[in-house]
Specification:
By secondary structure, this protein is mainly α. It is built from 4 helices and no strands. The chain starts with a helix and ends with a helix.
């Protein structure tokens, strides 16, 4: 085998190895792209779950004051004959607060 033939054989081997490596790199790039996409979706899901958890957490501290519109609805429902317990469930305020609103002079 001549020196030229040996060089050509070595060149062909290197070319084939280079082609194989490029194919592997393309495959790995596709996998990395898919993983990044999946991770991005998981991050969005995780953030959404955290936001849901924050909003669904029980209220801490003193409850907010009852606004005048709610007070008027409570009085109206009582005039319609509903019990304090029914009004409480309907308006989302405590039975004690319903009673206090009904018994107040305002």
């Amino acid at each position: 085998m001549t020196q030229y033939e040996e060089l050509m054989r070595d060149y062909n081997l290197l070319y084939m190895k280079n082609t194989e490596l490029q194919a592997k790199i393309r495959k790995q790039d596709a996998i990395i792209k898919q993983l990044r996409s999946t991770l991005a979706g998981l991050e969005v899901d995780a953030v959404t779950e955290i936001e849901k958890a924050d909003y669904s957490a029980p209220q801490k501290g003193r409850p907010k004051r009852i606004d005048e519109a709610t007070r008027q609805r409570v009085r109206k429902l009582k005039q319609e004959g509903l019990s304090c317990r029914e009004i409480s469930r309907k308006e989302g305020v405590s039975v004690g607060m319903v009673s206090a609103i009904i018994n107040s002079n305002n």
